[in-house]
Design a protein that fits this description.
With about 450 residues, this protein is mostly beta strands. About 0% of the residues lie in helices and about 45% in strands. It has one helix at about 85; strands spanning about 20-25, 30, 40-45, 60-70, 70-80, 105-110, 115-120, 125, 135, 150-155, 160-165, 175-180, 185-190, 200-205, 205-210, 215, 230, 235-240, 250-255, 260-270, 275-280, 295-305, 310-325, 335-345, 350-360, 365-370, 375, 380-385, 395-405, 410-415, 425-430, 440-445. The chain is globular. The chain starts with about 20 loop residues before the first strand and ends in a 5-residue tail after the last strand. The structure holds fe (ii) ion (FE2). Fe (ii) ion binds next to strand 20.
Length: about 450
C-alpha cells in the first residue's frame, strides 16, 4: 500500500488501520500522575475501505487511553459507526445533503454528559465512555443544520457555542447556542455574502467572533473532493456578536486576506477590546485543496469596537498550529497556549506534523519547546489540569506521537510547568496510531 503512487494521506503513518483493538497490558515508561483520572480521546480520518478521495473525507476513527490510579488501564481504537460504516451507499454522492451521514473524524468534545465525535459538514455522533458509537446526535431534532467540529464549551456558563457554515444557500452561516444541559437555545441565521469554509471560531465572556475568510466555495471543484479555493479578492472579515445576539448585532471588521484553521483562545480586555490569539496562514489551498505549503504561525488580532479598527500582530516565526489552552480559561484571559510545531512549509505534497510541542505565554509571546525526539512527529497537545481547583497551567499536556523510525506510537504525558523536560510518562500503544486531528481529556465522571 505504501508506495509513492499512493496519495500521501493513505501512506506512511497516514495509512488507515482496519482492525479495532482493545488492550489492557500497556507498557509504560516513567510514572503516570495519579491525578490523571479520565480518558484521553482523539479522532482522525481513517477510511474503512483503505481509500478516500481527500484527507478530510476519511471515516472517523477514535483512539482512546483510559488513565486511573497511576495506570494506563486500556487503549482502544474504534471506527465511529456512522451509516457510511454500517450502511454504506453504493453511490456516495447519494448521501450528499444527508446530515446524518457525517464522519466524526475531526474532533471529540464532551458536553452535557455526552461525548461527541464531530465533523463540520454534518451532525455529531455520540460515543460512550468505551468509544462505542451510540448514534447520531441532533439534540432531539433541534439542530436543523450541520455543526462545526470546533465548538467552545464556556467554562463559566457551561454552554456549547458553535456555528454551521456548510450550507449551499443563504444564510451561509448559522450561530448555534446550546445550554449546559445540552438543549439547543438558539440557531441564528447570520448573513454572509457567500459560502466559505469556516473551520473554527472564537468566544469571549460576552461575545463570539466569526471568521469570514476567503476560502470560498466553488462548485466546479466538487469532483476534486473539497470544493473550496482561496480567493484573496473576496476579502476577509471578523464578525463580533454578543453571545445572545442576532444577525443585526454583528459588527464586521475588515482584515488582510488570510486563513485561520485554528484559534487558540480569545478574551475581552477591560477597555472593551477583543483579542483573538490564533494560528494564521497567509493563504490556504493555494494550488488546490491538497496543497499544504502554507503553514500557520502565532498571530494576534485585537478588535477595537470603539474605533472599528483591528490591530494585526505577528507573534512568532515558528510554524505551529492545533493550539489549545487550559479549557477552564476558554473565552477568558489565558496565560498559556499549547501548539504543535509544523514542518514542511513550502512543501505542497503533504502536511508535516512537527517534532516539537510548543508552550506559549500568550501575552508576551515567550515560547518553550518540548522536543519529541529524532524522527518523532507529534499530534495536537491537550491540556489536563492537575485538579479542578489547580491554577491555570498546573497540570499535564498529553499528545499521541509517532516514531517514524520504529513505526511505533505512544501517548506522552508532559508536566506542563516543566514543559521542556522529558515526559513524565510514555504509554506505549499496541499499534501504530495514524496521524490524526483533535481530541480531548475527559475527566472521570464527566460522561453520563
Ligand atoms: Fe481543526
Amino acid at each position: 500500500m505504501s508506495t509513492r503512487e499512493t496519495p500521501w494521506h493513505l501512506r506512511g503513518n497516514w495509512e488507515p488501520l482496519h482492525e479495532e483493538v482493545s488492550a489492557t497490558e500497556l507498557r509504560v515508561e516513567g510514572s503516570i500522575p495519579p491525578a490523571l483520572d479520565g480518558l484521553y480521546v482523539r479522532t482522525g480520518p481513517n477510511p474503512s475501505t483503505g481509500s478516500s478521495p481527500h484527507w478530510f473525507l476519511g471515516d472517523g476513527m477514535v483512539h482512546g487511553v483510559r488513565l486511573a490510579n497511576g495506570r494506563a488501564e486500556w487503549y482502544r481504537n474504534r471506527f465511529v459507526k456512522t451509516p457510511d460504516i454500517t450502511d454504506p451507499l453504493e453511490d456516495p454522492a447519494a448521501g450528499l445533503g444527508d446530515l446524518g451521514r457525517g464522519k466524526g473524524n475531526t474532533h471529540v468534545v464532551a458536553h452535557a454528559g455526552k461525548l461527541l465525535a464531530l465533523e463540520e459538514a454534518h451532525w455529531p455522533f455520540r460515543l460512550d465512555a468505551d468509544l462505542e458509537t451510540i448514534g447520531v446526535e441532533n439534540f432531539n431534532g433541534a439542530l436543523p443544520c450541520s455543526m462545526t467540529a470546533h465548538p467552545k464549551v464556556c467554562p463559566v456558563t457551561g454552554e456549547l457555542l458553535a456555528f454551521s457554515y456548510f450550507s449551499f444557500e443563504p444564510p451561509y452561516l448559522r450561530y448555534i447556542r446550546i445550554d449546559a444541559q445540552g438543549v439547543v437555545q438558539q440557531v441564528e441565521g447570520i448573513d454572509l455574502p457567500k459560502m466559505v469554509m469556516m473551520h473554527d471560531f472564537n468566544v469571549t465572556q460576552n461575545h463570539v467572533v466569526f471568521m469570514d475568510l476567503p476560502l470560498v466555495f466553488d462548485l466546479s471543484l466538487l469532483a476534486s473532493g473539497i470544493p473550496f479555493r482561496f480567493d484573496a479578492d473576496a476579502g476577509a472579515r471578523l464578525g463580533l456578536m454578543p453571545r445572545k445576539g442576532t444577525n443585526a448585532d454583528v459588527r464586521w471588521f475588515e482584515i488582510d486576506p488570510c486563513y485561520v484553521f485554528h484559534a487558540v483562545n480569545a478574551f475581552e480586555k477591560e477597555d472593551g477590546r477583543v483579542v483573538l490569539d490564533v494560528s494564521r496562514l497567509p493563504e490556504a489551498f493555494s494550488a488546490g485543496s491538497d496543497d499544504y505549503a502554507s503553514v500557520g504561525r502565532r498571530w494576534r488580532f485585537t478588535l477595537d469596537p470603539n474605533t472599528g479598527s483591528v490591530l494585526e500582530e505577528p507573534i512568532d516565526e515558528r510554524p505551529g498550529d492545533f493550539g489549545r489552552v487550559d479549557e477552564r480559561r476558554i473565552g477568558l484571559p489565558a496565560r498559556y497556549g499549547y501548539l504543535l510545531s509544523l514542518d514542511g512549509e513550502g512543501n505542497s505534497e503533504e502536511p508535516v506534523y512537527g517534532s516539537k510541542l510548543l508552550k506559549y505565554e500568550l501575552n508576551s509571546g515567550r515560547c518553550w519547546e518540548h522536543s519529541l525526539g529524532d524522527n518523532v512527529r507529534g499530534g495536537e497537545p491537550v491540556f489536563a489540569p492537575r485538579s479542578p481547583q489547580a491554577e491555570e497551567g498546573d497540570g499535564f499536556v498529553l499528545a499521541i506521537v509517532h516514531d517514524e523510525s520504529a513505526d511505533k506510537s505512544s501517548l506522552v504525558i508532559l508536566d506542563a510547568e516543566n514543559f521542556e523536560a522529558p515526559p513524565l510518562a510514555r504509554v506505549h500503544l499496541p499499534q501504530r496510531v495514524p496521524y490524526g486531528a483533535h481530541g480531548s481529556w475527559v475527566p472521570n465522571g464527566v460522561l453520563r
